[in-house]
Amino acid sequence: MYKSISPIGMEHGFVIHTISKSVYSFEGFCYWMYHHVEAFTDIIEERSFMRWLKKDLGLTDLVIEIEKLYDNYDTIMEIMVGMLHLCPYTKELDHHDFIKRLMEHLNRPKHLQYKQKADQFYSMGHYKKALNWYKSAQSIHFDASVENNIAVVYMIFEEFEMAKKSLEKALQSDKHVSIYLNKVRYHILLEQYEEGLKVLDEVVNIFDHPKIWYYYGQIYEKLNQYIEALSAYERSYELTQSSDILVDMVRIDLELGDIDRVNWRIKEQCNETLLERYLKAQLEKKLENWSEYIMLMDEVIRLSDYKRAYVLELSNYYKNCRQIIKAIGVINTIHDEERFCEDVLYAQGIIIKEAGNYEGFENKIDEMINQWKKEVRFNTID
């Protein structure tokens, strides 16, 4: 059995995308594997966790033992059970229940297995692979929700005609609110705001869904109708208490110059330190108090475990200030498994453009260009 303690100062855990968890020890990895078998079969099959165990946790002997499991066993089930035996926490748990749940998962119909693979690739930003698996699932059994997901991927690739066809096909089979909402998103992306409002007006009296009000807010904000946007966001917030929507409301407050309202929201509506710091950072940004903004964003990034959106925001600030080295330094704190996500690659490309031919950047720029070319070629629809 092996015991692992996360190294002091360890910044990044191993991310299990399907359950939105980061783990920092072998025990944590096995705990979540035992309780969420469906999230781990692909991870075990692809061996994506082995480098983390060896490099970040320094568990070389454990990696050797796990490699023996791969050499000696033919099935994912045997390997996963073997790993449970290597962990002091999961060794004594009910392995019969684990095996039962795992077998039920592995014996699901093929189209459901393909859909899960697609969902996993989508969550990691590997959209081309996600699209291929979604299409494979559809070739076996048509599902309106999967066709809806296909439309979303096409929108990411800006293949809007294909997205439109998939949305229409999905709506012919199912009038689910999520499909209508993606139709609104389609119109927003094409800046067809009036068309988007028509769809929202069509469904607002049919579905009681907070995203409807959120998209009202998005469109009104795009049209610079800030009072209407704020009212829509507030309605969505009433239904969800979502911190993301609170960020939207503060953005509108700042656009309207209502600093007192922002301070009230920070004091009365924030219930977590991370959100409070982030909203304060946005306030300092509006007031052009740049040193305070940087200090707060540094803290936000640490508190969020280097969440991609926050890292990209601060990197973008440094890029706009022509502080290229700092921009690169910040963006390099993003988790390894997120480095090739589309928005990260795009940000790197913009940094490269801003850097130009500045002396001293050549090696870093060449590295980033090679990453960019490799991922764009890999993650583009043929």
UniProtKB/TrEMBL annotation:
It comes from the Bacteria. Signal peptide: none annotated. Keywords: Repeat, TPR repeat. Pfam families: TPR_2, TPR_8. SMART domains: TPR. SUPFAM superfamilies: TPR-like. InterPro entries: TPR-like_helical_dom_sf, TPR_2, TPR_rpt. TPR repeats lie at residues 210-243. The keyword rRNA processing does not apply. This is Tetratricopeptide repeat protein. It comes from Petrocella atlantisensis. The lineage of its organism: Bacteria, Bacillati, Bacillota, Clostridia, Lachnospirales.
